[in-house]
Amino acid sequence: MSTFSGLNTAWTGMTAARRAMETAGQNIANVGVDGYTRQRVETSSVGPVSFIGRLAGPTTPGQGVTVTGIARLADAQLDSRVRGTAGISGQAETVAAGLDSLEASFREPGANGLSALLSDFWSGWDDVANQPGEQAPAAVVIARGQAVAAHLGQISGELSDQWSAQHRGLNSEVAEVNATAARVAALNGQIRSTTAAGGTANELMDQRAQLTTRLAELTGATVRQQADGTVEVLVGGTPLVTGTSARAMELSGGAQISDGEAPQLTWAHRPPGDPSSSVDVQSGVLAGRLAMLAPADAAGTGGPLAQTLQTLNTLATDLADRVNAVQAEGLTSTGATGAAFFAIDPTRPAASLRVLAAGAADLASGAPGGGPLDGSNAARLAAFGELSDGPDAQWSQLVIRTGTMVQNGAQEAVNASMALVSALQQQQSQAGVSLDEENLALVTHQHAYQGAARVLTAVDEMLDTLINRTGLVGR
């Protein structure tokens, strides 16, 4: 083995140490970059030159070190856990936020809540019963009835607005899923080309990992690593991204809460009506949106917004029917048969409820045969606030049920968030950059570089002796 081979051995050591220092520097430079995964130079020793022949050659050392690659220190299992918990957390937080907005529209408890307005309305009828035919108590009960109707209409409008906002959010997020999937497919192509050419695609893989995590947060997608360096992204078992191809989702179905139809996610590449065209979203923000936008059902287990609006419509209808029925059974102070107090549109009861009565002459305060000063019919209306199945009880049950849903939703969101934070912490412990560790690596590889340089100097001195000084002794 030639003495000159020592130069190559020293040079490979210096090269490997330099690459390791550059990689440590890259890690340090990206310590605060979101989504960056730390890297490490992988090396292996170069074996000695092989001798061919019957007789074994002399024992020789290896020929230095070679850089075999730059590893991206990610853990597939931890990455998968992050994606799974991100999907669950995205769904839970979306539902919790929607329920919070729903509860806020009730304004309960408070002076402006429906409970207080209904209580005032019934107490107004009690005043009418004590002063039949008087304009002052009649004006008060009519104003309070108008306040109840206006509040029901306001809540109905807010529920419709919240449903529309959820639908707009769903539409926007479907567009984001499609755009993100296309970017993942493009990165798949770049990564495959780079790795096939022998290059390093670690930074591209970091970008792709961030995008697939976002897809998991939105759709609950799962990811499968392929042998050629690409990934396959699946939603409900159907590929969203395969190689350099990405499929698109479409939003169809109901566009307004009044449609009574659930919005649907379908695959754009499959014909309408095909049973397999439906996108099966198991978790993620989209699943949370779809849960909030689900239509009401007879069992009371439909979407919170539509189910609440249905209960509100039932309450408004019951309120109008009860009051109008008692009005029709009584007489005004002038002896006329009572007319309807409320008017209502059966197709949208809560939004359309309004007061028809204009004054004391429109209030049927007395019972037939009771005389102009009889207030027994108005007293019947005043007692409605105590009914176990009356409007007050229906509203109270709705508020309690919604409060329970909000509490459960908030707890689920907290639990899901804690699981995501735990998964992210474990992922960062594996893939995150530690300044202490990188500084130690930097110093270690610096000394390795200096040692290799010292070997190079020693070999150079040996060659100088061999070339320039051999044969000079004795002259």
Describe, in plain words, how this protein is organized in 3D:
The structure is a single chain. The chain has 475 residues and is of the alpha+beta class. α3 packs antiparallel against α9, α3 (114-130) runs antiparallel to α10 (391-431) and α7 runs antiparallel to α9. It has helices spanning 5-29, 76-104, 114-130, 135-196, 202-219, 285-293, 304-329, 349-352, 376-382, 391-431, 435-469, and strands spanning 39-46, 64-72, 222-225, 231-235, 238-242, 245-246, 249-253, 263-267, 342-343, 354-355. Helix content is 57%, strand content 10%. It has a domain at 5-32 and 434-468. It starts with a helix and ends in a 6-residue tail after the last helix.
Topology:
Layout: H1 5-29, E1 39-46, E2 64-72, H2 76-104, H3 114-130, H4 135-196, H5 202-219, E3 222-225, E4 231-235, E5 238-242, E6 245-246, E7 249-253, E8 263-267, H6 285-293, H7 304-329, E9 342-343, H8 349-352, E10 354-355, H9 376-382, H10 391-431, H11 435-469
Antiparallel strand pairs: 1-2, 3-4, 4-5, 5-6, 7-8, 9-10
Helix pairs in contact: 1-11, 2-5, 2-6, 2-10, 3-4, 3-9, 3-10, 4-5, 4-6, 4-7, 7-9, 7-10
Keywords:
4-stranded antiparallel sheet; alpha+beta; 10 strands; two-stranded antiparallel sheet; rod-shaped; 475 residues
Helix content: 55-70%
- The number of E-state strands comes to 10
The helix/strand order is: HEEHHHHEEEEEEHHEHEHHH
Low-confidence stretches: none
Terminal-residue CA separation: 30 Å
Kindly estimate the percentage of residues that lie in beta strands according to DSSP: 5-15%
Give the rounded overall mean pLDDT.
Answer: 88
Number of helices: 11
Strand order in the largest sheet: 3-4-5-6
| Helix-strand category | alpha+beta
Rg over alpha carbons: 38 Å
Major sheet description = 4 strands, antiparallel
Shape, please? rod-shaped
